[in-house]
Write a structure and sequence with these properties.
With 131 residues, the chain is α+β, with helices and mostly antiparallel strands. The chain has one domain. The chain is 35% helix and 43% strand. Strands 1, 2, 3, 4, 5 and 6 form a six-stranded antiparallel beta sheet that branches. It starts with a helix and ends with a strand. About 5% of the residues have low confidence.
């Protein structure tokens, strides 16, 4: 094998890994459980009272957690990456305080089933169930 062929193969492999990693990251960012949990948090009266209005998600790699199980399939449109399970921790910031939003869900027959969904307010040592 030529050196050029090996270099091209290696670069292609690295590029493919980067694209796959970006696809997984995008699946977390656009996942239905994440959107659902954020919407529930923003409308929960007790949470709004405790941390304030205008709740936003703040990215913080130190406290943010993303875990999941995905299935990869090849179809006529190319690759399809589908979520099966998701376990997320997100940082919420309100006008008065902050909270950690936790959501654990799995997909069964195309529908998301939520095992856990709560907001934890560390400063108050308070856990608010959002299910």
């Amino acid at each position: 094998m030529s050196t050029l062929f090996l270099i091209i193969t290696f670069v292609t492999l690295l590029y493919g890994i980067k694209l796959f990693s970006k696809s997984v990251t995008n699946k977390f960012d656009t996942s239905i459980p994440k959107k659902h949990a954020i919407a529930k948090a923003k409308e929960h009266k007790e949470l709004i009272y405790l941390i304030g209005k205008n709740i936003v998600v703040k990215k913080d790699v130190k406290t943010e957690k993303r875990k999941g199980r995905f299935s990869l399939s090849l179809n006529t449109d190319g690759f399809d990456l589908d979520e099966k399970e998701i376990d997320l921790k997100l940082n919420l910031i309100g006008e008065k305080d902050k909270a950690l939003l936790k959501v654990v869900a799995y997909k069964k027959e195309g529908k998301w089933i939520y095992k856990e969904m709560y907001a934890l307010i560390p400063s108050l040592n308070k856990k608010i169930n959002l299910l």
